[in-house]
Every structure is written in structure tokens, then in C-alpha cells.
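Re: [help] complex structure
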Amino acid sequence: MPREHFRQLMRVETARRSLFRATRAASVRRSEVVPVQDAMGRVLARSVVARRYLPAFDLAVVDGYAVRSVDLHYASSKNPRILQLVGESRLGEICRLRVREGQAVAVATGSAIPKGADAVVMIEHTRKLMGEKIEFRTRVGSWEGITRKGEDIAPGRMVLDRGSRLRPEDIGALKTLGLGNARVVRKVRVGVLSTGNELVDSTRKRNTAKIVDLNRPILSGMLRQLGAEVVDLGIVKDDKKAIKAALRRGLSETDLVLVTAGSSVGKRDLVPNCINSLGRPGMLVHGVAMRPAMPTGLAVVQGKPIVSLPGFPVSAMLAFRVFVRPLLANLVGAPEPVEPTVRAVLKEKIAGMPGHRTFVRVRVCRGKDGYWAVPLKAQRSSLLTSMVDANGIVDVLESSSIIKAGAEVTVTLTGDIRI
Amino acid sequence: MPREHFRQLMRVETARRSLFRATRAASVRRSEVVPVQDAMGRVLARSVVARRYLPAFDLAVVDGYAVRSVDLHYASSKNPRILQLVGESRLGEICRLRVREGQAVAVATGSAIPKGADAVVMIEHTRKLMGEKIEFRTRVGSWEGITRKGEDIAPGRMVLDRGSRLRPEDIGALKTLGLGNARVVRKVRVGVLSTGNELVDSTRKRNTAKIVDLNRPILSGMLRQLGAEVVDLGIVKDDKKAIKAALRRGLSETDLVLVTAGSSVGKRDLVPNCINSLGRPGMLVHGVAMRPAMPTGLAVVQGKPIVSLPGFPVSAMLAFRVFVRPLLANLVGAPEPVEPTVRAVLKEKIAGMPGHRTFVRVRVCRGKDGYWAVPLKAQRSSLLTSMVDANGIVDVLESSSIIKAGAEVTVTLTGDIRI
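Output below.
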């Protein structure tokens, strides 16, 4: 009797693979050159191979005295050796001194090692005597207390792989190698389109049947957090022509289009047909065995991915996490960032829908001996508070049904854990 | 014999507590008003209580027919009930229709429920007959298929607590409540100062004893990732007057000062004395039982925290993670964000220093049945690659010494896991 049903729901993993396979060729190939200081979070388009030495010279890594280790070969507390202090290697200055037999040169952490010396003895293990003489009570290994020129990085060493998402320490490495610029993958441009006759950007009226569109602001925020560039495709009415025109604009201006609502199989669900009418292969997946966000569609048109997300913001966010987040990483050739998780004990049982991936929103609290996860009472995807009140999601696999209270589960955190 | 030693190293947890206690009064109290769309990642200065209903009217959450549930009380597949379709509640339009006994009104997801109706039957469970008649083969519960006005959020409900770090879904909530602006805690202003005669911002010369300062760019990057505002206090020479002047500037212009190098107990380590000369209480902690970053100092002057970080960038980064990261959260009154971790099997044994917290840098790789953690050969804090080559850190507690190969450990991820 059901007249409008999904013929078959695809499993999450199958749907994901299908999307990734079809979009393999869609990766963002264009790169751009940006100043190193602006490159944080960007993805390297080319591996970086060092052309300089780090450090650029042999340097002391402790405060003390540069010596010839051979001179202290027999030094011990019973048999201290005394060397003649012949000068100081000053920080930041080229050292013209040479350490000869029986001699020592004062050094500080970071100062250049004088010629002839092959070790630095920490000042704590020495004593300064009259007449610029230094007493040593321990022997020292060759190159002890020194970082050698190029020991950290030598020319020809691959320092950062293509596909690296640049972290502060990587920016440091690029800077110390003398690189002023970095060649990074262009940001993914993502078009965000909302459909629905009821949608407005804001409303002040009390008596209205309009609904404020939250999908564009929420998805734009999620996209920016992940380093994408957002192109706002606006709100269009439930009208084939308007939807197609907006999608076409998205396809021409962006690398990926997200369109919300109208994604199901009812007569008002115009998006899947609109997508199919724009080119091949069109919809790859329509309907996913997941809750919420079952009416999710994944498509490729003109080599570009289009993701058709359900209209409820909670569903759109969850489908975004499952499909768009990894897709964005694929498009720039970087791994998907690992999300923070905690192990927590369920306060109340949760129920998955057998055969479906169920994303249960929970509130994680710190307990005495660990974390508790309290499933939110409101789990309906129509309720925004089912996401706003949550700080974590339990991903219940297709094979699970009920997870009992007291069981330990992995919670992916979506927000801070308050005390 | 050791002449210049730390008298006593403080345990990490004790040092942290001492810093947090002394800086409790230092929290950033000033707030500012920003447009909601620019508030992502910011911390709410005041709790947000709803003044509107969400949804603003009773609405359908499925496509179907709005009915009086009482009319379908006896409906079943054996005993279908037929109702008269009297109109449609259009999306985005105020509905003037009323459902009377024996009547139904067509609705779409998001459209207003006509007066008189108290349930929506999904279109999949109905059949349209001739003469605008609809056949129903199931009963329906009262308020099924409907989200009631205010069911998600009603006026007076606390929607977001003070101290919430705003996420995309929170921005959505603020927007739908009609809030154009949000009152957020002012960003923490952090002064970043490097000390050392050898330091320069960049160098092109091959024959030089200068060292490129990486601490300011690296720490600035880490600070910005955490939502702080950076004030660059530059590089100063190892000179008391210069250091004090820069610290004074930092204290007057910022909420927190980070100063790198000169943090130990040698005669060149001028920073702790400079800090103490600026005011009370001065250095709270000097020397922490941790590796690397043992010569870390924690101070409060004029009610403002100063963190004296070791000069090696690797040490500075690790001390930043341990002390500055949680301090930043405290200062804005938000919890410290949970970092991503994975459980991984050690490929090789690691050795902690008994009585010290040891931060071992590892490379995490995906194995067949889980993750492997390979400790980097280079662990010396003087080597930048000991951080750049790593994507994770194993925090070896004071009570541990050797952790054997094959043991499972928790790794805090500092970078992506490549395939």
C-alpha cells in the first residue's frame, strides 16, 4: 500500500564507498601559493624537501664548556682534569676560536661550537678556578652536549609530505628552512543551497508560517571549521526550474554542492529529479539505512559531487558528518581529521534501529571515575535541541539494537564537556 | 658540586593547580557584542534564555493529511475510514482552514496544522480516492506527525549556558530565536615574547650563528587555533632591562604573557628574576618534573599570569599544551576542549623518567586491526623534527618507567593519521 517509499535503503558504508569512488577524479587539483604565516590548516600541494641545514651550524644544547672529549678521557671526581679557558663563543656570533689540546671555550645553549671541540660539558659538572682554569670531574662522550649541523634536518630530507594539513610546528619547520611561501591545495569551494517555500532568512513577525532557514548558517559554519570556502546559493522555492538553475550555478562555481530539503520521495521532493536531469551519472545513492537522515541522496553531475541533505537541520548535520566531512578531506587529498571521543557509561539504554546506523545524541558528563553519557529524551530529528543540548553522539551499528544502561560506549564529542 | 640546579621540581599536577588557583581572579571579565554569524567558536558571556517559540506554530513533520485523531479511532486495514479532503495547508502560508468531523487537510513537512486537527497521517499510509476522498487504514495517536508550537524551545527555556563555546548548531539556535547578536567573552589577548641574543626573524646568510626564532610563530599559531588574540612582543636580547621592558608592555597590553628561553637557572637565565622584579607574587613555580620542558616557570604579576617557557620550540610547545591550553580555557570561563585520542599498540618500548611526566612523541599508523604507535627515534627537545615527524604524544605518568612494546597506550593526536 505505501505509494511513495524508498525502494531500497543503502547501508552507510556502501553509500560512502559509492560516493568516494565516483568522486575520486573530482579532487581539487589546483593549488596556490600563500605566505607561510597564512598557511596554517591548509593542505600541502607538494612535498617539501629541505634545501638547508637545521641547525645551520654545530651548536651547544647546554650551557657549559666546549672541549675536546679526548682531553677528558681520564677525568673523574677522583682525578679531575683542568683545562685552560681561552674564550667564549657568544650567542648569535660566528665563533673564530679554536680549541686546542688542554683548552676549553665557554658556550651557552644555542651558541656555535668552536673549531677543534667535539663535546660540551654542562656547567653543573664543572668548577671555575683561579686564572681562567676550569676543573672537570667527569668524562664526556664525543658530540655530547652538541646538536650537529643538519642533525635535525639536512638538505634532501623530505620534511613534509604532500597532503599534510599544516600545523603550527609545520609552519615553524617551513620558516626555519627559509621558505617564505607554501604551495597549498586551493580551498574546496562548496555551494550551499536551501529549498522550501516556507523558508526565510529571518522573521520578526509573530504570526507567520515562515520558517527561518538554519541549514545554510549551520552547514556554512561546519564547512568553515573544516577549512572550506562557502558559496551561498541562497533559498529557492520548491520549483523545478528554480532548483535546477541554482544547482547549475553551484556546479559551475563550486567543487561540491550541498542542497537541503526536498530530498525524499514525495511529490514535493523535487531535488533528486532535478539532479538527475542535469547530467550523468546523477543520483548514485538515494535513501540510506540510517536514522536520522534516511532521505539522504548522493550524486555526481559533470564530475562534481552533489549531496542532497534532508531538510531538518539535525538530519542535515548528521548526514554532513557521515558523508560530507570525509568527502571534503578526499577532495583536498588529506586524511579526515580524527574527532575527539571518550568512553562513557550509558545512564539509560539506547535503541538502534536494526539494519540501520542510528546516531543517538547524548549529554556526556564527568563522573567520579569517568564519564557518563545521558541519552537525550528528545531524539526526533525535527527538534533542534536534540543537537544543541547534546555534546556527543553514539554511533549504533547496524548489527546492534538495544545497548543497555551501564554499558560502556564510545561517544564522539560534538561539544565541550561541562563540569 | 652542581652549582646551578633547580632546588626542587614541582609535579605537573601540583604546578597546574598552583597556577590555576593564583589566576582564578584573572579571568577575562569584559565581554563584547558580536553579530551571531561571527560568533562561532566564541564563548557566551551570558546564558541565553528563549523569548520565542520554536517552532512558532504547530507544524507537520511528515507529508500527509492533517486529521482529527478521534475520526480514525477505529480505522484499520480491515476497516478503512474515508475522510473528505477540504483543502491544503501550503508551506510558508498561514492556514485559515479548520478540520471538522470527517475532514482532512493535505499538509507537507513544515506546513502549519489547520485548526481542529490534532494529528498528521503519513501519505504512505493513505490512498486518494475519487471525489477528493482519502482512505485511511491505520489509526493515529493524538499529536502524532506534528511538532507542537514551542515543543523544541519555549519562552523562558535556557538554551545555551554562559561559558558555552558556540558551535554551528548553537549559531542556528541563536538565529532561530531571532537573536542578531551574541554577547561573548572578549578574546584572551596573549603577548608572545622571545628572548635570546642569537634570535632573528629570518636569515638568508649561509654563514651565520643566528637562529630563526620559531617560538613566536609556533606559539602564535597554537594560540590562534584556540581562539586567542596574539600580541607580538618581538625578540629581545638577553638583557635584564630589555626583558623587563617587554614584560611590562605585555602586562599592560595583554591578559597573559608567554616568554620563551632564559627560563632555567643559569647565569644567562634572566627571565625568572626579571619576572620577580616586576611585582608580587612573581614566580609561583620554577622547574617542573616533566620531560621535556623541565625549566618551565609559572608566575603571576599584577594579577596576570606569565608563563616562562623553555627556548627549544619542542619544549615550549609541550609546556604550552600542559599549562597554557587549560589556562586559556579558564580565563574565558569555558572547559578545555577535549583533544582527539586513539588507543594504539606500541611498536617499541618507551621509557619514562621515574618521578617525571614524560611526553614521548610517536607516529601513529593504521594497522590491520587498529593503530600502531611508533616512538620517534629522535626524542631530544632540541630537535624540531621530534615534533614535526610526530602525529601523537604518549603521556607517561610519574609512576611509570618502561612501557613495553606490544602494550596498548592512549595517544593524544597532534596531527592527522596518514594511511
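Residues 59-147 of chain B form a domain with the Molybdopterin biosynthesis moeA protein; domain 3 fold (CATH 2.170.190.11).
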